[in-house]
Amino acid sequence: FSSTSRRPQTAATLTLLEEHDQLASHGKMSPYEHYNALQQMTNACGIDIPKSKYKPWLHITREHGYILLMKRAGRGCKENGIATTTGSQLAILCPACPREGVNIPADWKHSHLRNGNTILFLCSNALLIIARRQRYMLILMMDANFRLSNIRRSSTLDPGLGTGLAYLVEDSAYHEHYLKYKAQTNISTCSGFKTLEMAEKKDATGLRSTGLCMCACARHKMIRPQGVGNLQKGERYCNMDYIAMSAARNIGLDRFYSYDIACQWNINLQDRMKGLPAYLWPLPDVKLSYGVPKCHAKGHVLSCQCCFSMGLQLGVGNTDGEGIERVWAGIN
Ligand SMILES: [Zn+2]
Ligand SMILES: [Zn+2]
To answer: Which residues form the CxC2-like cysteine cluster KDZ transposase-associated domain (predicted)?
Structure first.
């Protein structure tokens, strides 16, 4: 696999790339660490080591990963497939979460009750409609992670390869959105959260991004397509709003968001939503509800626990909402 298509001077074997793919996905190994290990294996004394091939190695691993994504999505079997790949087509969707037209009844919004007393019929119908909507509700969870920061190594931009085609949001639209928001001043009505306090105070010196925010399905821990974005400061609402809406774009099901500061985040969310691109707005009859994960709920004031604890929310069953922390455990 050559590092460039024109007059290549450096190449990596496919065996090495397959090994790197496994080490990166199962061993959390970065290309930097893998390269250092290869260098050590070449010359453990550190004397007379070959000229650094680290930059070509970065190109190779990134391009190889991109091609693998395309291959696994079968884009090579379509005419002009790679060039015509758009909007999160490379992401693997959760097979267990409800999807309209795939794994739920076509008439999921409507009841089937036909017989009986009219009043009873209307009441039971209304309850049944609520119950049915909740049965097919999309239960999502979100959070931010500050371990996944990225150092700014040069003043030039480092454009991503194929952003928006799988789990990360499309760079340019996201960039345009968060640049509109200079400072967030939110006063917490619940206990003093570090999250809100640090939203603007987080030190971003020398960093291209301070961390990641992510939205995944709460019951199966599958990361949502276009449900991941980077953070420029702390856990700001402008980032979280975008990720939350992007992760469920164009979906007509009701949604439940589990978020450790959902009690604060949901305040004025409808107003803030107007600042998002129109294609991210929830469809008109989509109902949004919110909850705080069970373990985090203990840190909230009692009134907040009564309103937002996941143990008391309708339609979420025994979901604890803490799955996002388990996702971070596999990445950090
Ligand atoms: Zn799922
Ligand atoms: Zn609270």
So the answer is: 1-45
Q: Which ligand is the nearest neighbour of the Cα of 264?
A: 2
CA of 135 relative to ligand 1 center, distance in Å = 13
User: Which amino acid, 30?
Assistant: S
Residue 22: HSE in the Cβ half-sphere, 13 Å Cα cutoff: 5
What pLDDT digit, counting tens, does each position of 279-330 carry?
999 999 899 999 999 999 999 999 999 999 998 998 899 999 999 999 998 8
303 CA distance to ligand 2 middle (Å): 8
Q: Are 155 and 132 in contact (CB under 8 A)?
A: no
| β-pair type (211-217, 138-145) | antiparallel
Structural tokens at position 148? 């996944």
Closest CA to 213 of 262, 127, 146: 146
Q: Say how far apart CA 304 and CA 246 lie, in whole Å.
A: 27
CA of 303, nearest ligand number: 2
